[in-house]
């Protein structure tokens, strides 16, 4: 083959610039390549070490600032230390940090903090490094130990198999049992750590100091305190330098220092997305210019708005902080390839965005969204008053199909299937412009890839942003003034309307740089005064006001002609700083032209406008429009002085005339082709609640990839709440079926077609039917998530935020932090909901809501924001703290939320299905024969009575995810009705179900078919019990306790009563703990060990004497015989209730005394062992106690009282496997010790077992699990 005949690779299409004429523009004007322009990338972070992110075309630094606006990279460095005599400081990890001699620090003070490195990494990097750690460091040490432990256990079992244990004495049997338990415990522990793979990552010390000129900071990535190997950095914007955590992770980061050294901000990248976006907009490859971004001369300001705590989700606080930074940095452009859906057309974020654009001249370019292909699917910001935002749709060209997607064949250029469509629900076009929506370009170095393919409006937005950067570069160099509105007018009026032009997908068309440049140059004359004036156009409908266009969608709106008021309000750019003469001199006359709807739209021909709003009316007559179609028209306003510059403003009009469905059925046939969609609009019949759709591929041999997107719009509710979106393949001569709930009398769009890259044509059939399944005469939604009900805050605090959160002109932003307590008696998968603000982000009145959940050790466990359904977390039993932050500039607004509750939502452990009956009588009497079961036959237009029976308490408790179900809690779920051959396609359900709890279910138990309260039978306290209660009270003074003790001891009978002796023993133990605490405190304060051996020995002897006195009061053999008899007495005829209670008391006193005695002997033996004294006699006594406890309770590990002794028994016998297993279990059940103590005991066990890798494993995550303070917002 002649290789010279091969086509050259289309490198230009990897990052498209020809289609937008950006490439030809730069060929003509090479210096207008973005130089002099700052583009703020509000995203997941930009890697300054990525390919193409080093310098601009004129040699300047490419990335000139890096900020993490989310707060997830913040480190509290408010702790201040000084260097010791050896030149070290001690970090918060406890490591000794050697200060390099070359560091200059006149004050001698160092700010220190800690950071878990996994809080910075992307999911990819974290997974990669965790796997590497396990494979290279952990597993090589762990696997051989596990193999040896299994072998030792098997050998023991084989040797024991041939022995006759029945002939052994109990002491020998117990000894054999202990040996086996030790080997089993070692195997279990090693298997547990082998399977858990719970690597929380290392924690690094952070150091901040002032060198006399500026703040400096570094991170001890060595984990050894070797600061000479650390990268010393200052604020990135001052040095343009960054560090790399390690060669293994290739993770580049920058640092910023705030609040006089008390706050360190570590800036990384939480995903590939931000770097890819920045590379499309402005990457520069000096040696390979074909790979350049659209504006290679532009500089980048990287602002991370995605929060690692929320995976990559943006928050309102991060966006507002980003806006502040954009203004401070003097950025010309913003690219925002983030966004969520919205419910209504106003919100705090939009208000500040509008101020930033209108007052500070920042051009805001944003991705329209990837929620198409149905109409009205643009993101939340674009659903607001969007004249401040350039919203970008995504387009794919034939060259991109060949170069980026390696398609077998190419088709004409088209909008991507998924690109969001307008109109916005307030009537604006929704999409301003479109651009190439895919690229293969640079990603962060930690991705270990040079470049990747990504597609989405996230990619089309930076392409358009780069195009605008070229225009701004030209305007600045030519000294041509512009505003965000003159730029927007230029690109919209010159955009290319492609052969497949669709205003809802393409906006005004595909951006064309050359024509937009010519427009700006030609029409910048001073007499064309609208450069500094933009026009806010609103419409008033019969049912709403202040919309941005005319949008008629439901059948009731198009039954007859309608009149609409249009208000045009001129607004002056940066009005505060403009002379009043601009308002006085302003006058324009417009020619109004209808395009696309001359037969059904009527409007005035002319409009005179001064600096005040003007109103004119428009008549819409939809009678001539075809049913089932969408119809678009536009009223363009041309300046009569200069009509050739194009429309100065426009009024979009969309009218949908739905089909009236006959007999509840509708069908159509469609020959499908790539990216060609059949849109059908149906008026959902009255009372219909369910829609069923069957799609059939009638081709006999070919399959295809399809999309079905159905949607309805309801006022102030996001389209996502009323949609079905399914991507699927259909095999030849086959069909698929879907069903989903619908809202009657609202227009349903059924959008069906082939995926854009699914080549070829296929004949299909689509059948649509509606069902009238509804609940008649129901009072409430019948609403099975379980809710623990409402939790009120335990603490609230309002305070001003720092320098990063002051809006220009001194507007201080405040935070309200609310604290809540969550107690779980058993594990649960739950979510946290703040009902007042949930499901609102861009449209929220407040800037943001962000909650963080911490365990009792202050470890950060989970976070969530405005969308609670995204953040379910499996929590173990225990006590948790929830901290919720809400921000606003008004303290009075925050004050109103001081007592705001949160709701804890738990997933049920198993389905809780109420039983359904056909009659009321059957439901009450629980007649098995009248149950509906899982199926029922419903006849058309016939009401079928159904009666729902409340589930049995036992079923509720079994399904409940929490141990205690308090009054006010409720279960929430749904009923669905589907045909037998169908599967539900969503989890929303047709009818909600709620089961409210009006009493404490957990206080009710079922015994022999009769429910009894646990508290119904209480033992009457005698006189001694009352005195003992007083003795044990924490409120009694030491003096009064001594008097009471003396008084009881005077009574010879009471003085030897086991109850009194047990109480006296507990008091002695308590005093001993107090003394030990005092000694510990003295040791810490003096630095010397306090030796009080004699005093402690006296206390020990008292404890042993009291324990023996209690044991003597109970005949052990009689007790054992009695317990054995009770066990055999299944019918309870040998012992009365009183005798059984007495026996249980003796058992309890005996266990208490044996445990206390055993623990004391173990402590004494441990002290003797430390002095190398012989402990063989003590060991005999200790093991004798173990045997007695074993005789009483063969399942000692389940007894929380005995387990305290078992731990000490295992340790003194050097059974470290048993010891580790026991302390792990006691920690899981009910922690006796503070958890850090448990950690220390585990390390003691692993040291004893000579498992150093597990000690290192625990140390690696210690500061993650036991941080010194709560994580910062």
TrEMBL record:
This protein's UniProt keywords: Aminopeptidase, Hydrolase, Protease, Serine protease
Domain Tripeptidyl peptidase II second Ig-like, chain residue ranges per copy: 790-959
Pfam families: Peptidase_S8, TPPII, TPPII_GBD, TPPII_Ig-like-1
Domain Tripeptidyl-peptidase II first Ig-like intervals: 533-656
One GO term (biological process): proteolysis
Catalytic activity, reaction form: Release of an N-terminal tripeptide from a polypeptide
Active site: 43 (charge relay system), 273 (charge relay system), 458 (charge relay system)
Residue ranges annotated for the Tripeptidyl-peptidase II galactose-binding domain, each copy included: 673-760
A GO-annotated cellular component: cytosol
GO molecular function annotations of the record: aminopeptidase activity; serine-type endopeptidase activity; tripeptidyl-peptidase activity
E.C. designation(s): 3.4.14.10
Signal peptide bounds: none
CDD domains (alphabetical): Peptidases_S8_Tripeptidyl_Aminopeptidase_II
Chain ranges of the Peptidase S8/S53 domain: 34-499
Family from the record: Belongs to the peptidase S8 family.
Record's protein name: Tripeptidyl-peptidase 2
Source species of the chain: Blomia tropicalis
């Amino acid at each position: 083959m002649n290789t010279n005949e091969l086509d050259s690779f289309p490198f230009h299409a990897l990052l498209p610039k020809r289609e937008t004429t950006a490439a030809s523009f730069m060929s003509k004007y090479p210096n207008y390549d973005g130089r002099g322009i700052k583009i703020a990338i509000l995203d997941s972070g930009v890697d300054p070490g990525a390919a193409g992110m080093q310098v601009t075309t004129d040699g300047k630094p490419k990335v000139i600032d890096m900020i993490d606006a989310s707060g997830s990279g913040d480190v509290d460095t408010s702790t201040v230390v000084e260097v010791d005599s050896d030149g070290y400081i001690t970090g918060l990890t406890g490591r000794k940090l050697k200060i390099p001699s070359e560091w200059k620090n006149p004050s001698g003070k160092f700010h220190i903090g800690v950071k878990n490195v996994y809080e910075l990494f992307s999911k990819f990097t974290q997974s990669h490094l965790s796997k590497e750690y396990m494979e290279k460091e952990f597993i090589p040490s762990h696997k051989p130990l596990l193999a040896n432990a299994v072998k030792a256990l098997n050998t023991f079992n084989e040797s024991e198999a041939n022995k006759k244990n029945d002939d052994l004495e109990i002491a020998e049997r117990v000894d054999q049992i202990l040996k086996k338990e030790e080997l089993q415990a070692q195997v279990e522990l090693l298997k547990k750590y082998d399977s858990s793979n719970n690597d929380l990552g290392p924690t690094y010390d952070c150091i901040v100091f002032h060198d006399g000129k500026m703040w400096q900071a570094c991170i001890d990535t060595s984990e050894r305190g070797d600061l000479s190997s650390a990268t010393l950095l200052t604020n990135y914007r001052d040095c343009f330098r960054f560090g790399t955590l390690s060669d293994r992770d290739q993770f580049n980061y920058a640092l910023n220092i705030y609040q006089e050294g008390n706050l360190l901000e570590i800036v990384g990248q939480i995903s590939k997305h931000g770097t890819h976006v920045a590379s499309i907009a402005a990457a520069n490859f000096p040696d390979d210019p074909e790979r350049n971004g659209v504006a290679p001369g532009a500089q980048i300001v990287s602002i991370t708005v995605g929060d690692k705590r929320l995976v990559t989700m943006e928050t309102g606080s991060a966006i507002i902080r980003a806006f502040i930074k954009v203004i401070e940095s003097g950025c010309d452009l913003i690219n925002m390839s983030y966004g969520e859906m919205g419910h209504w057309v106003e919100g705090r974020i939009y208000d500040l965005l509008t101020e930033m654009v209108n007052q500070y001249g920042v051009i805001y370019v944003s991705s329209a969204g990837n929620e198409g292909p149905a109409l009205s699917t643009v993101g939340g910001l674009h659903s607001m008053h969007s004249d401040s935002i350039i919203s970008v749709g995504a387009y794919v060209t034939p060259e991109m199909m060949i170069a980026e997607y390696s398609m077998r064949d190419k088709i004409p250029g088209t909008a991507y299937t998924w690109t969001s469509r307008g109109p916005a629900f307030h009537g604006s076009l929704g999409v301003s412009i479109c651009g190439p929506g895919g690229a293969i370009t640079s990603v962060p170095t930690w991705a270990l890839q040079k470049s990747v393919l990504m597609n989405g409006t996230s990619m089309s937005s930076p392409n358009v942003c780069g195009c605008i950067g070229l225009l701004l570069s030209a305007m600045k160099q030519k000294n041509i003034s512009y505003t965000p509105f003159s730029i927007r007018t230029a690109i919209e009026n010159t955009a290319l309307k492609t052969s497949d032009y669709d205003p809802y997908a393409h906006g005004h068309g595909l951006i064309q740089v050359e024509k937009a440049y010519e427009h700006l140059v030609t029409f910048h004359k001073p007499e064309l005064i609208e450069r500094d004036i933009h026009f806010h156009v609103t419409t008033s409908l019969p049912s709403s006001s202040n919309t941005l266009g005319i949008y008629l969608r439901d059948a009731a709106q198009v039954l007859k002609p309608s009149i609409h008021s249009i208000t045009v309000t001129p607004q002056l750019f940066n009005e505060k700083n403009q002379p009043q003469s601009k308002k006085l001199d302003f006058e324009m006359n417009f020619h109004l032209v209808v395009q696309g709807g001359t037969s059904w739209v009527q409007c005035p021909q002319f409009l005179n406008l001064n600096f005040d709003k003007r109103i004119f009316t428009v008549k819409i007559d939809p009678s001539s429009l075809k049913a089932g179609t969408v119809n678009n028209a536009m009223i363009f306003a041309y300046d009569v002085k200069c009509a050739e510059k194009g429309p100065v403003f426009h009024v979009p009009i969309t009218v949908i005339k739905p089909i009236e469905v006959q007999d509840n059925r509708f069908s159509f046939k469609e020959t499908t082709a790539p990216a060609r969609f059949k849109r059908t609009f149906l008026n959902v019949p009255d009372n219909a609640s369910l829609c069923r759709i069957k799609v059939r591929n009638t081709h006999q041999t070919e399959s295809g990839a399809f999309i079905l997107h159905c949607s309805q719009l309801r006022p102030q509710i996001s389209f996502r709440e009323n949609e079905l979106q399914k991507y699927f393949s259909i095999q030849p001569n086959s069909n698929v079926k879907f069903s989903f709930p619908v809202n009657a009398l609202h227009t349903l769009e059924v959008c069906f077609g082939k995926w854009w890259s699914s080549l070829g044509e296929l004949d299909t059939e689509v059948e649509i039917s509606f069902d009238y399944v509804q609940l008649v005469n129901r009072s409430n939604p019948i609403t099975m998530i379980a809710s623990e009900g409402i939790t009120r805050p335990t603490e609230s605090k309002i305070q001003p935020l720092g320098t990063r959160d002051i809006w220009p002109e001194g507007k201080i932003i405040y935070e309200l932090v609310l604290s809540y307590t969550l107690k779980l008696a058993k594990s649960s998968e739950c979510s946290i909901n703040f009902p007042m603000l949930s499901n609102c982000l861009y449209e929220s009145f407040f800037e943001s809501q962000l909650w963080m959940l911490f365990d009792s050790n202050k470890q950060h466990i989970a976070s969530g924001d405005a969308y609670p359904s995204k953040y379910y977390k499996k929590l173990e039993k225990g006590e948790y703290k929830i901290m919720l932050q809400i921000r606003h500039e008004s303290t009075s607004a925050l004050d109103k939320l001081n007592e705001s509750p949160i709701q804890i939502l738990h997933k049920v452990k198993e389905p809780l299905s109420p039983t359904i009956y056909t009659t009321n009588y059957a439901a009450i009497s629980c007649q098995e024969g009248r149950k509906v079961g899982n199926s029922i036959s419903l006849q058309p237009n016939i009401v079928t009575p159904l009666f729902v029976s409340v589930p049995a308490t036992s079923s509720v408790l079994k399904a409940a995810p929490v141990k205690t179900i308090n009054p006010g809690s409720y279960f929430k779920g749904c009923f669905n009705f589907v045909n037998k051959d169908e599967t539900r396609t969503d989890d929303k359900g047709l009818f909600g179900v709620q089961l409210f709890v009006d009493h404490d279910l957990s206080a009710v138990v079922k015994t022999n078919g009769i429910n009894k309260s646990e508290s119904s039978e209480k033992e009457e306290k005698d006189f001694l019990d009352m005195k003992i209660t007083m003795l044990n009270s924490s409120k009694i003074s030491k003096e009064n306790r001594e008097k009471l003790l003396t008084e009881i001891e005077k009574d010879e009978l009471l003085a030897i009563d086991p109850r009194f002796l047990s109480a006296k023993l507990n008091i002695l133990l308590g005093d001993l703990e107090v003394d030990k605490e005092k000694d510990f405190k003295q040791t810490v304060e003096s630095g010397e060990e306090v030796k009080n051996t004699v005093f402690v020995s006296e206390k020990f002897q008292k404890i042993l004497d009291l324990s023996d006195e209690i044991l003597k009061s109970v005949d052990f053999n009689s007790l054992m015989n009695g317990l054995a008899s009770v066990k055999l007495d299944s019918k309870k005829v040998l012992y009365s209730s009183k005798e059984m209670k007495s026996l249980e008391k003796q058992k309890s006193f005996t266990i208490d005394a044996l445990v206390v005695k055993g623990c004391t002997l173990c402590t004494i033996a441990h002290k003797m062992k430390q002095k190398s004294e012989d402990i063989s006699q003590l060991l005999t006594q200790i093991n004798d106690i173990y045997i007695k406890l074993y005789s009483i309770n063969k399942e000692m590990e389940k007894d929380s009282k005995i387990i305290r002794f078992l731990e000490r028994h295992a340790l003194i016998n050097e059974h470290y496997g048993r010891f580790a297993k026991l302390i792990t279990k006691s920690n899981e059940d009910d922690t006796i010790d503070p958890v850090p103590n448990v950690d220390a005991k585990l390390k003691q066990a692993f040291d004893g077992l000579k498992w150093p890798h597990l000690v290192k494993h625990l140390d690696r995550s210690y500061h993650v699990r036991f941080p010194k303070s709560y994580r910062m917002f």
